[in-house]
Design brief:
The structure holds 2 protein chains of 2 kinds. Chain A is α+β, with helices and mostly antiparallel strands. Chain A contains 5 helices and 5 strands. Chain A is about 35% helix and about 30% strand. Chain A has a 5-stranded antiparallel sheet with strand order 1-2-3-5-4, with helices on one face. The two termini of chain A are about 25 Å apart. Chain B has 3 domains: about 60 residues, Alpha-Beta Plaits (2-Layer Sandwich), CATH 3.30.70.20; about 280 residues, no CATH class; about 70 residues, 3-methyladenine DNA Glycosylase II, Chain A, domain 3. Helix content of chain B is about 40%, strand content about 10%. Chain B has 15 helices and 11 strands. In chain B, helix 4 crosses helix 6 and helix 13 crosses helix 14. The chains are: A alpha+beta, B alpha/beta. At the A-B interface, helix 1 and helix 2 of A face helix 13 of B. The structure holds adenosine-5'-diphosphate, iron/sulfur cluster (3 copies) and magnesium ion (MG). Adenosine-5'-diphosphate binds next to helix 2 and helix 5 of chain A.
């Protein structure tokens, strides 16, 4: 077999549930005996992207393909899109509203951290249509 | 598969397979097979949750009896500070310590004294930035074992200092040898324990090859004789044995070890569910910027241990009261002390416990099969099959440890279809 495919719907209206998908993927990677550094990077990157779907885009879905040597993730939403991706990628840049910031989100470190922890990252975004975020995390053999 | 020693055991006769413990175990270490609970030894962290919940008292913690100390020529009791919280209106720890001598010990050495040394050594490690931060306390063996089997990325963060019992046992043994001139093997050092996790840790330690402690007696086991002895003490008999400050005694409750760090970037969590949540969050870096993390498997800290007798919150209040008039600390590191307090072995992640196979391709095949079995299960997580959840059941089936018809809902459907078929032929 080549890959394990997992699918998650990410609800857009419940902060407390954000992290369910990344938590579930992490649990499965642990049962597979996956490289622990790769698990950590998947968990962190995916959690940040999930949170973004909840606070900036009213939810969406997430497809995960686990291969023996890499994990590919698509996070897709029908939110407002990102007008200036380059700006959004800057550390500290955030459009999160105050009520979200008061919950401790919106430090503007999500996308920069996703980039830092993944090996490949691609953003497809269209204003008014939505955003697809493609991530690849490789197992780094030390 | 390794066989591990555990102090948590099942009394088979008393178990009726009610599934209460099955659902409570934080590591999914329990299965019910043929109507009786079984503990998957390699997954058990000796947290004692199953003992707490079992309504039929079928789970018990193995600990020694007072009788057992008689094998040695000279005996030293090393009581956990949680012991001091078990007595109503106690205002002087020396009464407890003198009581321990009255029930048969030749001497006592408080674990809280060693705790003060561990606190000082921890402060030093943080200040000299000698370890990866945040440091995670290594005092609760249930937590250390949990990290060892479930949190590979956090093994490095575990404070590489011996727990206070081990430090206390070493010092007590050395002092007893000097005082009596006896050989080490003639001296018994016994921990008075709040929990089964510590009993296991003494038997099969993570941090050292062999514990300096000979064994542990549960607080609840020694309690009746000890209270009686304490009641019979005359005021003039009370010896000034205690040499602990408020830092050492504070270790009995959650937050006490953190307070001993004398810094503010710390977090203290207690209760196994909270502990797991914090470990997940630390691993995923949702919590950042801390220097120290104190985790206790029991609610309230060690005063909540399953071998204690008093309610943990009452016990907490008593510890506060006892600490009130004490000096901050009465024990200080001497030159080479800290060298004798390091772990002998590094904490290594035990990858085998939760993974499906050591071959990733094989593991992936098994997981794929698990997912399709899981889809067909009723998703009730009722535990009647003997596995804690439908997902765990799917895993057990894939591993060949259970079969689909162990699920009573599946079995019922199968019987129904056989019945329908038969009815058709009549
Ligand atoms: N899925 C998304 N849909 C729309 N906008 C997004 C999405 N993800 C990120 N953004 C935009 O990019 C900005 C930066 O994202 P991030 O670095 O995660 O910081 P933060 O979430 O803390 O604001 C966000 O404030 C938001 O404007
Ligand atoms: S709680 Fe567990 S050990 Fe106790 S009777 Fe029920 S199944 Fe048996
Ligand atoms: S002691 Fe804790 S880990 Fe061990 S079987 Fe009981 S509940 Fe599970
Ligand atoms: S918190 Fe204390 S009493 Fe409870 S298991 Fe851990 S060491 Fe034992
Ligand atoms: Mg974000």
């Amino acid at each position: 077999m080549s890959a394990i495919h997992l699918h998650y719907d990410v609800s857009g209206d419940d902060f407390t549930r954000a992290g369910e998908a990344s938590g579930s993927v992490k649990k499965r990677l642990k049962s597979l005996g996956y490289d622990s550094d790769a698990i950590r990077r998947v968990a962190i990157a995916m959690y940040e992207a999930e949170i973004n779907m909840v606070i900036h885009a009213e939810g969406g879905f997430c497809d995960v393909d686990i291969y023996p040597d890499k994990v590919e993730i698509l996070l897709s939403d029908k939110g407002p899109g990102i007008p200036d991706v380059e700006k959004a990628m800057q550390e500290g840049y955030s459009t999160a509203p105050d009520n979200v910031r008061s919950l401790g989100f919106g430090a503007g470190m999500g996308l920069p951290n996703i980039k830092k922890y993944s090996d490949e990252m691609k953003i497809e975004t269209t204003i008014g249509v939505g955003t697809n975020l493609y991530l690849t995390i490789n197992v780094h053999n030390e | 598969m390794n066989t591990y020693f555990h102090s948590v055991e099942l009394e088979v006769d008393k178990c009726c397979g009610c599934t209460n413990c099955l659902k409570r175990c934080p590591t999914e270490a329990i299965r019910i097979r043929d109507g009786k609970a079984h503990i998957l030894s390699e997954r058990c962290i000796d947290c004692g949750e199953c003992i707490r919940i079992c309504p039929h008292h079928a789970k018990k913690a193995h600990s020694l009896e007072l009788e057992d100390i008689k094998k040695f020529k000279y005996n030293v009791a090393i009581p956990a500070p949680a012991l001091y919280a078990q007595f109503n209106n106690l205002d002087n720890v020396n009464i407890v310590l003198t009581g321990l001598k009255a029930v048969g010990f030749n001497d006592v050495f408080e674990v809280s004294r060693a705790a003060e040394l561990v606190s000082e050594a921890t402060r030093k490690i943080i200040k000299e930035k000698k370890s990866k931060l945040p440091l995670i306390s290594s005092a609760c063996p249930a937590v250390v074992r949990l990290i060892k089997i479930r949190f590979p990325e956090l093994c490095e963060n575990v404070l590489p200092l011996l727990a206070p019992i081990e430090v206390a046992a070493k010092i007590a043994r050395k002092e007893a040898i000097e005082k009596t001139g006896l050989k080490s093997e003639e001296i018994g050092v016994f921990f008075i324990s709040p929990c089964p996790a510590k009993v296991t840790e003494i038997h099969t330690p993570n941090s050292v090859e062999k514990s300096a402690c000979n064994g542990a007696i549960g607080i609840s086991r020694i309690y009746p004789e000890l209270t009686k002895a304490m009641d019979h003490l005359d005021f003039k008999d009370i010896e000034p044995l205690s040499r602990s400050g408020l830092i050492g005694i504070g270790w009995a409750t959650s937050g006490g070890e953190s307070a001993g760090i004398l810094r503010d970037k710390y977090l203290a969590a207690d209760g196994i569910e909270n502990v797991i949540k914090i470990l997940e969050d630390l691993e995923d870096e949702h919590i950042r910027g801390l220097e120290f993390v104190e985790l206790n498997a029991c609610s309230g800290g060690c005063v909540g241990g399953v071998l204690t007798v008093e309610n943990p919150y009452v016990a907490q209040a008593r510890i506060q009261k006892l600490r009130k008039y004490l000096p901050v600390t009465l024990n200080h590191l001497e030159d080479d002390d800290i060298d004798n307090m390091n772990w002998e072995n590094e904490l290594k992640f035990d990858a085998d416990i939760f993974r499906l196979s050591d071959d990733i391709v094989k593991a992936m095949e098994m997981m794929d099969e698990m997912e399709s079995i899981y889809k067909d299960l009723p998703h009730l997580d009722c535990g009647s099959c003997g596995s804690p959840t439908c997902r765990a059941m799917a895993e057990d089936i894939v591993k060949g440890e259970a079969k689909e018809t162990d699920c009573i809902h599946k079995l019922k459907a199968q019987i129904q279809s056989v019945y329908d078929q038969l009815k058709g032929t009549l």
